[in-house]
Amino acid sequence: MKYKFLVFILLFLGLLNTYAQAPYFEKTYPESGADVAFSIQQLADSSLYLGGFSEQGSNGQYDFALKKVTPDGNLIWSKNYGTIYNDQALGMCRADSTNLMMIGTTEDPNNQLSTDVLLIKIDSAGNELWRHTYGGPQYEQAKWVQQIQDGGYIFCGFAPDLFGSIDTYIVRIDSTGTQLWESFIGGAHVESGDRIISVPGGDFIVASTTTNNGNSDVRLSRIDQNGIVVWDTITGDSLQCGSQGVLLDSHLRLIVFGETEISPFSKYDYFIQAFDLNGRELWRKTFGGGGTNALFDLKEDQNGDFIGTGYSNSIAGSSSPLNVSVIKVDSAANLIWAREYGFSGIDIGYSLLISQDQSIYIGGRSTQMDDDFYFLHLNQNGLLSLHENESEEGIVLYPNPVNYELSIIWDKKIKSWNIYNACGKPVYSMKTADNENTTHLDTQKFGNGLYLLNAKMIDGTMVCKKIVINH
Question: Would 27 be classed as within a structural domain?
Fold first, then answer.
């Protein structure tokens, strides 16, 4: 008995310490016009950067936009890069550990109906080091760039081939931006490269979405160091399925992720799919809920689990606007927990970073009056420690500690609430209705221990309350 009590006290104190850590937050950076963050990166000195595009660029029309922020989300500086034409950054990577590489599209000055790929290298102070454009007289786009072992870079997107069909477009460049080769993967169908990564041996894997007569499938291809296809596989069925990327995990498996229908014309669910390095499918999992769900980024944590972000409204209710979704699954893609965040409009997470302290940062978009950069910081269990927003008003729990029935009373400011156990796993959730403000919860179905009630306010802030269950 004494041992159980000691464990409980240590767990309680540990969770208190977790939630005393500063800072976890959810915020936007409002500016006029559309501003979207497609990537978040952390340099070796722990500095954080949000990259995307801004409609109110200083160079004219849309520009590449980069914000340097502190770990607690305070803006240090914001800078724009581009031309007098429309320039939209769609991706960003670390370069040489101390710099950044932004990639996207720029309008062709000789033909504004076409675009080229624009690549800009920027140092940690926001100074542009160099820029290059790639492409021909038609329409080229890239949204993913990665530095490779020789110090050069490889990027992917889409472009028309010699026969006018849209193919996955891959370009390898040296460390100065000089093009070494370009490669196309595709045929008569529409192909778009979503992400390209290096694998052992020096080859590359590219994940694409292939579309034939309106039906989309996942295409996974391996190319050698000269851009020659080693193998190429398409997995899919009669349902819509779109790839958003691929990663190489610690088990040397290729993990592809995105969104898929689960029946004809159904709402989308998340999918995660594993392949070996020869392109053989190992398993495929789909999950989501009653709403619409998609994954735009997925990372492996230090324990071999996967954490992803995208959008969903399954928890908030399928009729609600899309929220930023954060999910955690184990190494076999079994769901551990799922969360939703955001404000009153449409909110989407595009990029996820597991930071040096193993906490979670997410960059994306938040739409209220218009699109703004969105920035979210969570602990390892996907929970906000809302020290700066915590309020004693709005929700009452009694008795607490509780041994049987817990009464929960809230005011009209509460939109929804969830209860999590000490491991961060959701055990109960509820969306409040306008005509109710009380519920009585039978705690006999929960084990003894410490729980967290996380209530989402109408204005987007959160209230956290600790529940002690002791039968």
Answer: no
Q: What is the mean pLDDT of the chain?
A: 88
Helix count and strand count (H, E) for the chain: 1, 35
The tokens for 347 are 């909110």
Residue 422 pLDDT > 80, yes or no?
no
In this structure, the answer to whether residues 186 and 290 fall within a common structural domain is: yes
Same domain for 332 and 439, yes or no, is no
Terminal CA-CA length for the chain: 13
The string of DSSP letters for 386-432 reads -TTT--SSSEEEESSSBSSEEEEEE-TTEEEEEEE-TTS-EEEEEEP
Do 374 and 412 reside in the same domain of the chain? Answer: no
**Which residues make Cβ contacts (< 8 Å) with residue 133, sequence separation at least 6?**
106, 116, 117, 118, 119
The residue-averaged pLDDT of 425-433 equals 84
Cβ-based neighbour number of residue 231 at 10 Å: 14
CA–CA gap between residue 116 and residue 391 (Å, rounded): 50
**Residue 400 shares a structural domain with residue 461:** yes
Does residue 9 surpass a pLDDT of 60? no
The Cα–Cα gap between 295 and 9 comes to: 38
Tell me the pLDDT tens digit for each residue of 289-301.
889 999 999 999 9
Query: How many separate domains does the chain show?
Result: 2
Return the pLDDT at 57: 75
> Is 19 among the domain residues?
no
Assess whether 365 and 421 both reside in one domain: no
Note the pTM of the prediction, 2 decimals. 0.79
Instruction: Label residues 395-409 b or e (16+ Cβ within 10 Å = b).
Output: bebeeeebeeebebe
pLDDT at 1 over 70: no
Q: What is the CATH number of the domain that holds 188?
A: 2.120.10.30
